[in-house]
Design goal:
alpha+beta; 4 helices; DUF3093; 44% helix; transmembrane; 26% strand; membrane; 4-stranded antiparallel β-sheet; DUF3093 domain-containing protein; 154 residues
Length: 154
């Protein structure tokens, strides 16, 4: 019995995004606070900071998880019995998979700041998506986790 996930990753936003957001909040504080007063500057900067934190936490909160029964990517979950071949993509292959080679029916978990992706074929004839394309920091490890458990089930 395997209770632990074979693979688990949170697609959190990079630190540089937080630094850029902090610089933007400080800029809003200054450009609003100087002409309109410090209270207005603090109010505008506070609202911007809250919105950015909520946006980054929600966007970066996407979970990619593989266990013995399910594959979860973002808000979607699928039973492992409906998964076909998993292929790790990096570099130009990953960019093309999310761009010119992408099927409009595919389920996408795209994070532009991540270097790789995994394309997982679906075998469920009732599912309109032909495959899932999931961005990841570790495409080889995710593809291996999907393939390893698939082999163990058969």
């Amino acid at each position: 019995m395997v209770d632990a996930a074979a693979y688990r990753e949170r697609l959190s936003v990079p630190v540089r995004w937080w630094l850029i957001a902090a610089a933007a909040v400080v800029t809003l504080l200054v450009i609003t606070g100087v002409p309109a007063g410090p209270i207005a500057g603090i109010a505008v900067a506070g609202v911007a900071a809250v919105l950015l934190v909520v946006l980054f936490v929600r966007y970066g909160g996407a979970l990619v998880e593989v266990d013995a029964e399910k594959f979860r990517a973002g808000r979607a979950t699928i039973d492992r019995t409906y998964l076909g071949k998993a292929v790790a993509l990096t570099g130009e292959d990953a960019r093309n998979a999310f761009g010119r080679d992408c099927d409009p029916k595919a389920y996408l978990v795209l994070r532009s700041y991540l270097p790789g992706a995994v394309r997982v074929e679906l075998t469920d004839p009732h599912d309109p998506a032909p495959y899932w394309l999931v961005a990841t920091k570790h495409p080889d490890r995710l593809a291996a986790a999907l393939s390893q458990n698939s082999v163990a089930r058969s």
